[in-house]
Predict the 3D structure of the following.
Amino acid sequence: MRGTTRDRGQARGAACAVVAAVALAATGCGGGGPGGAGAGALLSSSWGDPQNPLEPANTNEVQGGKVLDMIFRGLKKYDPRTGKATDMLAESIETADSRTFTIRLKDGWTFSDGEKVTARSFVDAWNYGASLRNRQRNAYFFGYIEGYDQVHPDTGAQRAGTLSGLKVVDDRTFTVRLRQKFSGFPDTLGYAAFAPLPRAFFTDHAAWLKKPVGNGPYAVESYTKGAQMTLRRWDGYPGQDKARNGGVVLKVYTDNNTAYTDLMAGNLDLVDDVPASQLKNVRADLGDRYINTPAGIIQTLAFPYYDKAWNKPGTEKVRTGLSMAIDRRQITDTIFRGTRTPATDWTSPVLGEDGGFKDGLCGDACRYDPARARKLVREGGGIPGGQVRISYNADTGSHREWVDAVCNSINRALGDDRACVGRPVGTFADFRNQIGRHKLSGPFRAGWQMDYPLIQNFLQPLYYTGASSNDGKWSDKDFDALVDRANAETDPAKAVTAFQKAEEVVRDRMAAIPLWYQNGSAGYSERLSGVALNPFSVPVYNEIKVS
């Protein structure tokens, strides 16, 4: 879900009375979960209203992504345990040059309304997602495809209706031609933006938005904004990963502490984001029903390179010095209690070594060393403006707590009580608006949850010149050239090596300060079994059993 710095702590929790007023009889607020047991029983789970309509190319945040993961299946699927991309609707994806791909679909797939899934289902969906006129937030995912500059130009009006790089061959075959070589392209195709769409999406768009129709193991039964969404198992689903429960009731919460309280009271079955304030109690409360597992999420401090003060020779030493002034281990142990791990690179351990994670790539620059930190900050000309002001949104999560801890660590290391302060911004929306309008004059918190398990996804969207989520506008020709070389490699191992060379440029320039890797956390009721989080920190709903 790239393109925006995500916030898992976004508005999440609603008063039980509000939910009860609109809930179905089977999903009442008191006396436990939705009721019933066995393969036909529903489970209830905490949720937050999606920020955007549930169009695959318009959903780039976690809450909407949960629904898309249940109601859609694409060409690829990411293994819920390893994250590896495996064929789902794709029978084959072939290429001779890593630029032109021939995609052949498996037979027998339909949408839940009975319509057959064809090559046209994908091509029409991708053209819709790429179109400037449709204002889809994930449009840039189609930026690799030839013709994107015509359907979604950086400036001016749209000059073409469809992507020239997409061609339907027959009902089960289409071809894709990219603007440049990208050997990892097939592995990106499990992301929801690349999902197929039925004709109803185009012929009665308003009705589809009210009740989305997909081709996944669940179908949307009802949705009341601000209250809940009910999804039922689709018995006609042709895939192997069929739902092992009768459905899921997603209940809207604006406070994850309220959700946790409802879980403990027996009014909710699953909470997939245990609040920091409950971490000291959760083991005693839930025992083995508490999950804390690595996820493809990294937290960093980004910098505003559009501000000349942070983009002049020598400031890379200042940024490296600040990195070495942060005692990551103490902060993660004290505040996050095992749900965060000090970062030693700019990716995530869930990638594994073969996927590009290289433990210790950051080297000394990520080790707490106050003496070295002071020396580097001095050699770099000192902190621009004399003070680091870390911007963060103050409305959700425990951001204030960790930002204060980071600043206290920097102040102690540099021997200056005013070297670093937090700069709270009222809401996440305001925070993102200030980032987008380039109104920040100091570092700001940045989080990245992988869209797909490739090292490329942790580097190119964030640090490539002009990239969609390069919020600080960092630019480096050496980095760009290495990324281009890595994308052109047809050998996966050689591609990973080239990406790691690019990551070393990020390290040497300290483009952003890596802080810690974030785990996924969840707690569940005694009614459930088989509960797990995938590498994206989302519950694997279809595998959950209700007893």
